[in-house]
Amino acid sequence: MSKLLLPEDLDHVELWQNPYDLRTVVKTVMAAQNWLLDRMPADQKLALVFGERHNSPSQKIMQTAIVQRMHEQALNNSGLGFAVGVEGPTNTRANSAGYLRKISAEPVHAHLFTLPVEDIINGNDPDGKKVLTMQNIFNKAEDLQQIGQIFSDLIVAKGISYAHTDIAWEHRDKHLFIDQKDPAAWNLVERFKPHLLGTDIARHGRNCENGMMLSNQAMAENGIAHMKRTNSRLYFSGCGLTHVFGAGEQYPYSESLSAAFENRGCAVLAITPLDDLSHTSKPDDAPPTIAITGYPSADRTARRIPTPSFVAYVNKMSDFNL
Questions:
Q1: Where are the alpha helices (DSSP H) in the chain?
Q2: 290: which strand partners?
Q3: CA dist 129 to 36, 121, 133, 159, 176, Å?
Q4: pTM recorded for the entire structure
């Protein structure tokens, strides 16, 4: 089946005139999603792959509003179902256990723990609530005031199934490596060995060519498993911008997250907020894509402390209420 092409009025959003009003983005994304659903086989799943700049508050607001709309649509249509996966290692809780135990023993942070610390670390977590609890504790304990907190709060408030879908990582020598002790991670490495470059993958940080490809395979594989587990046809997959299409010869499209979803039979709607015009091109075989230009690039310097403009935007946005 050939890939669908979005109509011209749905394949881009320009925010130059009013960069802080992101409602146009949400409306365009939902219109494009529904346009695709109307033309896809009734049993095919759709992943919205959102490529973010990790330090952009406006993009986190975009994602929060989009996720709320997707959730509402799924609630009103019993045949859809909806879940959220993000670029975080599947072993997040294990990686963070030491730090969590440390701050749980500090009286000043005792009020942050609504669950026993060992339950947060080791308890069953089918819908991602405990990994979100861990993230929220870290944010509050470190006074980060991250704008990303509104994303987590929405997931919890609406009861949306949530998962970290990236391959398991481990920190070693101040770098990230694929975790050799994680059975699922190493199973993926073994299955993709014929495609790996150079020497043993264990000697590569996950940001090398091998690491990026395996990360994308894991996010697609775990994302589709999450969709099946939750009986969801719609999926929001949040990731860094380079994961969406790859980037040049080092990270080819064939090894991208979009391609990994498509190779498993899942349709993709890609969302690419682009403040750098050198990145506006996309591969010829890319899935339906919405390019967003003109959003406030200066917000990339304000990841941890929301600017008054963003706080006002969140508080006043007429059709986005947490």
A1: 23-39, 57-75, 92-95, 97-104, 117-122, 129-141, 149-158, 183-191, 209-229, 241-245, 257-263, 308-316
A2: 271
A3: 30, 11, 6, 9, 25
A4: 0.89
Compute the distance between CA of residue 44 and CA of residue 233 in angstroms, rounded to an integer: 7
Rounded to whole angstroms, the maximal C-alpha distance in the chain is 59
CB proximity list for 66: less than 8 A, separation 6 or greater: 25, 26, 29, 30, 48, 50, 236, 271
Q: Give the tens place of pLDDT for each residue, 135-186.
A: 888 877 776 556 678 888 899 999 999 999 999 988 877 777 888 889 999 8
Single-letter amino acid, residue 312: A
Read off the tokens for 290: 């919405």
Beta-strand pair 175-178/169-172: antiparallel
Q: Which two tokens stand for residue 302?
A: 């304000």
Q: How far is CA 207 from CA 90, 244, 318, in A?
A: 17, 15, 40
- End-to-end CA distance of the chain, in Å? 39
3-state secondary structure of 236: strand
Pairing of strands 46-52, 175-178: unpaired
* Encoded amino acid at 220, one letter: A
